[in-house]
Amino acid sequence: MLEEKWVLITGASRGIGRSTAHEFSRNGAKLLLVARDRDELEKVQKEIQTLSYIFVCDLANEEAIKKLFLEIRKITKNLDVVVNNAGILYSAPLLMSRREEMEKLFATNLYAVVHISQYASRMMLAQKKGSIINISSLMGISGAKSHALYSASKASLLGLTKSLSLELAPYIRVNAIAPGIVETSLIETMTPQKQEALKESTPLKRFAKDSEIAQTILFFASDMSSFVTGEVLRVDGGLCSIEI
Amino acid sequence: MEEKLKEAFAEALMIDKEVVTDTLQYNEIEEWDSVAHMSLIAEIEDKFEIMLDTDDIIDMSSYAKAKEIISKYLEK
Fold first, then answer.
1. Which residues lie below 8 Å from residue A75, measured CB to CB, with a gap of 6+?
2. How far B12 CA sits from the closest chain A CA (Å)?
3. What ipTM score was computed for the predicted complex, to two decimals?
4. Residue A125 belongs to domain with CATH number
5. In chain B, what's the furthest Cα-to-Cα distance?
6. In this complex, is the C-beta atom of A226 within 8 Å of any C-beta atom belonging to chain B?
7. Is residue A53 situated within a structural domain?
8. Which helix (H) or strand (E) element contains residue A198?
9. Does the pLDDT value for residue A23 go beyond 80?
10. Nearest-CA distance A88 → chain B (Å)
11. Average pLDDT score over chain A
12. Number of independent structural domains in chain A
């Protein structure tokens, strides 16, 4: 489905990003994999079959993003798909939320996505096509106790997605995915009892697998969604309102 | 440099090279709107192998200004 397409995936060293790299490679994409952890990125690179390049980059740093794109443009003039997956989780009650942490959170979860979209959209507009997929969160839609700032950062991606879908049309499609609870990330911090309670309140009675999120990303990346832009797709097993 | 820049303008905005003069201004011809501006930036970055700062993209409001900005990058 993605033969000969150049795809940039951030946060590619683990979780949804890593699964997406696998799924896209199986579908023939050439990959530009970005993360902070070189060792893990190298492991992903060894695991996949198609052409790939790895980039160690702290996306909270605007200058680092600029350098990343200078490197990418030495490799390819084309960029077909961007998956803005990198993000950091921040959990703190409102009264214990520190400004320094807020700035770190928004630098990665929002500003990095803005800067990547700025650089990527230029390449995509030059070829008059492209697809940008922003990974938000169910918390960005429904909110969650002790996750006000994280939820706000993920909600901001929804506004960004919808606005950019208008601004970058008709050439670039921009969509977002709002995963619910995924097996490998947030649940590690929960007690077994909490996990069971959440599964019980999820209509599909389980958590998502990374691969299920990756398949949804593939839908937005491919021509299967060629008439879809500005959309936010919940991938949450029916769990649209949660308490964590 | 000027010839290359004119080519970038002509190709990105899909206009004749003769139209690209110092008086050419952003949003003053229908071919140079906000979407075309991004294509223009991509074309300039490709041709000169540079990456423009956001402030310079905002400032690039005419062909004359573009010449001034690109010269600054080529001096670096």
1. A32, A53
2. 8
3. 0.75
4. 3.40.50.720
5. 33
6. no
7. yes
8. helix A192-201
9. yes
10. 25
11. 94
12. 1
Superfamily of domain B2-75: ACP-like (1.10.1200.10)
**Domain hosting residue A212, numbered range:** 6-235
Chain A 72-101, residues with CB within 8 Å of chain B CB atoms: 73, 77
Separation between Cα atoms, residue A23 and residue A25, nearest integer Å = 5
Mean pLDDT of A48-66: 96
B51 in contact with A at a CB cutoff of 8 Å? yes
Question: Is residue A92 assigned to a domain?
Answer: yes
pLDDT score, position A135: 98
Annotation says A53 is catalytic: no
Is the pLDDT at A47 greater than 90? The verdict is yes
**What does the alpha-carbon distance between residue A22 and residue A139 come to, in Å, rounded to a whole number?**
26
Chains A and B form CB pairs within 8 A to the count of 29
Per DSSP, B29 falls in state S
Is A195 inside any structural domain? yes
pLDDT tens sequence across A125-183: 888 899 999 999 999 999 988 999 999 999 999 999 999 999 999 999 999 999 999 98
Cα–Cα distance for residue pair B18/A7, rounded to 1 Å: 38
Residues from chain B that touch A121, judged by Cβ atoms under 8 A, are 38
Mean pLDDT for all residues in chain B: 92
Say whether A70 and B54 touch across the interface (CB within 8 A).
Answer: no
A105 in a domain, yes or no? yes
Instruction: List the single best residue of A77, A122, A171, A172 to mutate versus B (max B Cβ within 10 A).
Output: A122
